[in-house]
Amino acid sequence: MAKGRYVMRRKGLPPAAILAMCAVALIAVIFAGTALIHAHHNRPAVDPTDPALSDPAPIDPSQPPAETDDAAARRAALLEEAKTLYKGYFYDEAIALLESAGELKNTDVGALLQDVRQSRDALVKYEDAQYYHIFFHSLIVDPALAFDGDYKEAGYDQYMTTVTEFKAMLPLLQEEGYILYDITELTERVDGKAQMKEVWLPEGKKPLVISIDDVNYYEYMKGDGFAERLDVDDQGNVVTIVNGEATCDGDVMPILDAYVKEHPEFSWRGAKGVVAITGYAGAFGYRITDLPDYDEQTQKWMLEKTEAVAKALRASGWQIACHSYTHNQYWNKKTITMEEEKYDIGRWLGEIAPYVGDTPIFISPFGVSFDADDARFRYLVDHGFWIYCPVDSHMPSYCKNDFFIQGRINLDGLTMKRYPERVTRFFFDPAQVLDPARPK
Description:
Structural class: alpha/beta
CATH class of the largest domain: Alpha Beta
Number of helices: 16
CATH topology of the largest domain: TIM Barrel
CATH architecture of the largest domain: Alpha-Beta Barrel
Radius of gyration: 43 Å
């Protein structure tokens, strides 16, 4: 028995050992708990406003992503282009541009698109029987040279307008509601019959045609304060050559181009006017009908310049007209024979038209008119000149048979000084623009 009891004690743990082990475990637990409590109380405090600990901001699907500088610049350019088209009455073109904006569309694009559509829909049909056509000769750039007391002074005073006067006229015309209109858009031929075309304009606007006679810069004008010729600059603009230098204010064409660029609302869809040239002195200041008088290089230069000027004029909204070849007195006296007319028109068609282009417009020399059944008038119409412009201060405009007639009034010294009521009736008081440099 003693042996057995001994074996049983060996297999178990004595009570004292068990108590000791429990005490050790309890002390370990107490120590660990104390350490945890100490660590909790000694860690850094947490700032609840720290953005690093906040939740990510929610994404608003209704807001577009941030725009790049490139997109903003492209939209600004698009809006500027559309506004320029809009101001010049290119409504459909502006609408098409804005509608194709794609990713550039925003409230600004939408608002402009709405404005353009409303303006287009607000156009009214021009119902007045009165149309308007004013004309000039080449402008006097330097009145001191033109009005220097020689034998040509009186003619310049009667038939010419100064640069100062012309520039003063433009804002007055615009204030009165006039808007430049292409004469070829006033009329059309349908089945050989001429008829007026519908004209739609903003309410209160009146269509105005401007023409310039004798854009040839004749030899007699040299040294008298006029431009020498037309040219084209590196940007494709028509300029005048004055005293050997290119300038933008030496005649009607570049002056009007610049004014319309600044005031596009003064021109219906870029229309400018009509440049009328004779033939016996060439065109635009280039003596292309006297080629044998020049060497081969100069001949080539003159022909190329004439073509370049004509192309630039047409591209910028100008029409070109025949003003006869000879501008001979037999037109003025209406004594021109059929043989003389065939020679005259034949030379213009053969020597001028190939370089300036075909035209349906005939600006009659000396403002002469013919009866509709006059064979000399029929010759012009039958040779393509079915838009005929004589001088008539009442400015009648009408279609008859296969031709269109539009009378013109000259805003020169003769009319402004001697017949001011003709100008005041339609346009403005000429006293507002008369150049004090004119002879008294």
